[in-house]
Amino acid sequence: MGFDFVTKLESCYTIIQENHDFLILIYYSHIPTAIIALLMGVFVYTKNKKALINKLLLTISLSFSVWSCLDLLTWISYDSRIIMISWSMLGFVHIMIFFASLYFSYVFIEKRDIPLNYRIIFGILLLPIALLTPTNFNLSGFDVANCEAKEGDYFTNYYYLLGFFIFIWILLFSIKSYKRAEKNFKKQILLLITGVELFLLSFFATGYFSSLIDNYSLLIYGLFSIVFFIGFLSYLIVKHQAFDIKVIAAQFLIVTTWIGVFSQFFIVQEFSNQILTGIILVFVTIFGYMLFKSIKEEVKTSEQLSLASKKLAGLNAKLEELDRAKSEFISIASHQLRTPLTSVKGFTSLILDNTFGKVPVTQKTAVEKVFVNNEKLCLLVEDMLNASRLEAGRLEYELEEADVVSVAKSTIDIIKLYAKSKKLKLTLNTPKEKLMAIIDQRKLSEIISNLVDNAIKYTPKGGVTVTVEKVLLEQKIGKAENSGTTKKNWVRVSVADTGIGMNAKQLEAIFEKFKGGDEEISNNQLPISNEISNPNDKNGHNISNGNGNGAYVAGTGLGVYISRQMAKAMGGRVYATSPGKGKGSTFILELPLVKK
């Protein structure tokens, strides 16, 4: 039989029947891969139809699917007209896949469209393919015996070598881009280019060698290379949310399973098997839809949570900014207040020392009140300043070896006037020996001032006793559980009062920032004043010192908090004990002594 391009060829029909089992593999290599590629392209495209990168991925998917359909027709058709038309288009579609892959890789990495000179180069390289496709340079005839077209060597070699050139182009471009990319984006480049290059290399190698040795059965194995591309692309979407897509991997599993079952219709011949396949397909479709719907709801919920988390993060950032502004304001305000307060303190001290002449008793009482209240303001300002420095991590210490007893004496001398104004007895008990420790003298004085001031504030009547003594304390050696202990000398400064006392819960709560010593009174927010309108508490107990002056008032809650932080910085500790409500409290400062 001679060449006959207008009729169906018996020789082709015979070849198809003889190779029925091999055609089953052809169906599996062409149909599922084409559908999967097309679904991936459509899925990404529908998520953002305006994005260039999404359009290019759709172009690759469409080109591959068209190529698979054209090649499938050359295998299953015994009509020479269909075979020749399909075969003639394979070269053009083949090279379109390579060019679309290059374009896609460039846009993905550079995040912009290709420049004009690239487009010109693409056009020049594609022009021979477009012009020679409908000519004898592409297909020169039809081989009836083997039921296949006769390819033109120049045309075939050109588009295969052009494909290999594009493969090298993508490889070199990606290596260069990988070196200068950011660390996080490097992983995405590596994943994408690995998938693209494995796909193109396999597609090129199987096609070229099939044509070279005239054995086109190798082509079917090249089609499975699309799995590499789809696999790496799916991982990019799931792991790195490439193409601005949030998707669950289970969705791809459902689609793949459905395609695998659906493709059975092209293979099974017996009617009973076709019915069984149909039933399985129905179940896969139903359960797949249910799972898809569940996943969609999960993704929607996840997106809402993510949006809420971002809003919360934004609010948190604003709160942190406000907190910093607050700390800066407190710091600036404190600095500005220290100068006039120091001036007031200096002049009142000189007046009380009779530097400007003897002061009448009536005036002296008023000056003492000014001095006491000024000292309280000085302590408050210092506490606020220290609190802002602590938050910013800028509280500095001038550590040196010094006598704790000496610091305690000088501090108590200043506070005595305050205790006197409250008609409380302030007693200091110290040893005759010096107790040397590595301390910041100014910070230690602030700690003692805060503890004594706190004791006076919450003591309605009686007094406050400050005791400085040397104690032998057990100290753990090492971090292991069975490391043992040793005894070392420490200095202990105890501030005991006869005040309102505390329960177990309050003993630890008072060391939190902005926590008052007595919850009930703190919650009442008594004014910082020497006058209390009602001298009795809610239980009827008198909290007045007898002259209308309040025994305790609401404070900032910063004093003991700052004292504990300062003590820690000097290697010591501050804690409190109390027998209970109405039985007084004892605040204790302990610091390690210098070894002699």
Features of this protein?
596 residues, alpha+beta, Rhopdopsin 7-helix transmembrane proteins, Heat Shock Protein 90, 2 domains, two-stranded antiparallel ribbon, 17 helices, rod-shaped, disordered N terminus
Q: Strands across the major sheet, in which order?
A: 4-6-7-9-8
Tell me the strand percentage band. Answer: 5-15%
Query: What gross morphology would you assign?
Result: rod-shaped
Question: How far from one another are the termini?
Answer: 118 Å
Overall pLDDT = 77
CATH fold-type name of the largest domain: Rhopdopsin 7-helix transmembrane proteins
CATH superfamily of the largest domain: Rhodopsin 7-helix transmembrane proteins
Q: Biggest sheet, open or closed, and with what strands and sense?
A: 5 strands, mixed
Count of distinct structural domains:
2
The structure class reads alpha+beta
State the share of residues found in helices, binned by percent. Answer: 55-70%
Number of strands: 9
Order of helices and strands: HHHHHEEHHHHHHHEHEEHEEHHHEE
CATH C-level name of the largest domain: Mainly Alpha
The CATH architecture name of the largest domain reads: Up-down Bundle
Our Rg estimate from Cα atoms comes to 44 Å
Low-confidence spans: 1-6, 517-554
DSSP summary: helix tally: 17
